[in-house]
Amino acid sequence: MNNPHSLFPDLAVREEHFSPRGDSTQLVEGNSPTLAELTECLFFSPVDGRIWLNDQRMLLLHSSSFGALRREIIERQGLEQTRGLFTRTGYLSGARDARLIRERWPDADAAAIFSAGTRLHTLEGMTKVEPLHFKFDADSGFYEGEFLWHHSCEADEHIAAYGIGQDPVCWTELGYAIGYVSGLFGRLVIFRETECRGMGHETCRVVGKTAEQWGNVEQDLSYLTASAPHAPLRPRQAPAPAPEDDGELPGGPKPIGASAAFNAATLALQRVAPTPATVLFSGESGVGKELFARQLHQHSPRHLAPFVALNCAAIPDNLIEAELFGVERGAYTGATHSRPGRFERAHGGTLFLDEIASLSLPGQGKLLRALQEREIERVGGGQPIKVDVRVVAATNVDLRKAVAAGDFREDLFYRLNVFPITLPPLRERRDDIPLLINAFLRRFCQDYARKPAGLTMRALKAMLRYDFPGNVRELQNLVERGLIASEDGQAIDLVHLFRNEPIPQELYSLDDNGSLAASDQSPAGTQPRPALLETLTRLEQDFSIEGLESRLIEEALQHSAGNLAAAARLLGLSRAQFAYRLKKYQQASACDAVITPHAPAALRVLPKSDG
Ligand SMILES: [Zn+2]
């Protein structure tokens, strides 16, 4: 993801698609991304308490709360510090939006992509951006643009708190422009307000140029740098890994997430990993317990020794003891040679026991003894063998309940439950869904040597609202399925992802008037039917067009007492048209009552022709 040539770690530019030069005169009305397409990216999931801009979670904040926060920070930190803080906040938003546009419209023309930032900035409610002109040439590193900002939200709040002053005040919005344009251009483009409503001007006027073109940008840069207020940014600093970069550890893929619930589990893991303590992971099936256990092993002093996993539910009761502790030759019929068990194979390392609750009571007793004595005996062998193993267990059932029910030994429970870590189900960390989709898509694209065009908007929406009863594993399967079912260069759509999974919640997008409206992107079957169809289907359960037509013909005939011309008029038909339809249903009723089960029954008693 990271481009070593970009100035900022999260500003990797897709150079392969980026046309190097262009200007505002090249803007073509209707070129993607259009305002309608951008608006489609913003959707609300009120039942679930989330607002999304494509795959980014958004916040609807009262402008006045933003103003109050801004004012309080100014009072605590002073103007300059606060200006830096808000410039950086805006910068992050702009850079995020640049990434959204690049990833969603990788092939859009450059002028349209630059102007999409002004539309997004407007859509997000900060200010109404009016581009006056802009021009860029990536090859020579030239950028120049001038914009008007109407009714800037930040200027409103600043004026409300402090009145008209000497300096420009639209800090967040400037940061946004810097983040967005730099994020697309791959070079630092600095924006300055040459006029600002906060200084008494009618509108804010903003000019953007590259740092080189401006010349002296020390002060502008100071607002972009968090740690040292007056030190300029170091160009080409080593990029830090972005959170979605799943740089693979020697132990394989690592858990992916950035949500609070995920972070809590990760922090707990990092805390306990260096210790020798026994760890008990609990969580629903598919949340990634083994992945976490491997991660624990990787972060422990035992990481060079083996990680051995055993799913207790996969081994029959009568074999589990041999699996855990090994077998001496001749221990039972079929034991033709000696072999070590998982404990011995994990010596010096970590033994991961998944679905520990499915271990039989005798098996539990033997496991407890091994944990207490730190030695095992092979089945059929008399010699105790010393083992140095860290046991990590996992369960998808509540072990306390299993203890209460007499299914699990209480002493073993306490032996295992030294450091419990609960892994949240995916539906409780929905914010991680975009990260996971991205990571799995990249992994499978590599595995399958495929190049899909990403996910369609409605597919992404469906993924974001789906409950994932099978958790991360299910999401992984859906992504893999979607990739297999779609063609190269084709975006993965609903039809590629979901087969019979229920997608329950309503989702809301903005309609043409900017009001919230139920998303029309639901898969077939989950949307309410249109009004007329709804009415008709309520009238007749097995509604069909033919059935409707035959009933209309029948009723018209009845109403006109069998007069064809009068009946035809009632239905807006000519007499010939009516007669043709009538004949069709008469024949259908005579030949094949199965085809139109309603109509012929009604038409069986045929009126006399008035001919
Ligand atoms: Zn301003």
Name its key features.
4 domains, 24 helices, Muramoyl-pentapeptide Carboxypeptidase, domain 2, five-stranded antiparallel β-sheet, alpha+beta, Rossmann fold
Explained architecture:
The structure is a single chain. This protein is of the alpha+beta class and 611 residues long. The protein folds into 4 domains: 15-224, Muramoyl-pentapeptide Carboxypeptidase, domain 2, CATH 3.30.1380.20; 260-423, Rossmann fold (3-Layer(aba) Sandwich), CATH 3.40.50; 429-518, Helicase, Ruva Protein, domain 3 (Orthogonal Bundle); 531-603, Arc Repressor Mutant, subunit A (Orthogonal Bundle), CATH 1.10.10. It is 42% helix and 14% strand. The chain contains 24 helices and 19 strands. The strands form 5 sheets. The protein has a 5-stranded antiparallel β-sheet. Strands 4-3-2-18-19 form a 5-stranded antiparallel β-sheet. Strands 10-13-16-9-17 form a 5-stranded parallel β-sheet. A hairpin with a 5-residue loop joins strand 18 and strand 19. Helix 2 (63-77) packs across helix 5 (153-162), helix 3 runs parallel beside helix 6 (171-185) and helix 21 (545-559) crosses helix 22 (564-570). The radius of gyration is 34 Å and the shape is flat. It starts with 20 loop residues before the first strand and ends in an 8-residue tail after the last helix. The model is unreliable at 1-17, 227-251, 520-529 and 592-611 (pLDDT under 50). Zinc ion is lined by residues 152, 155, 168-170, 193, 196-198, 204.
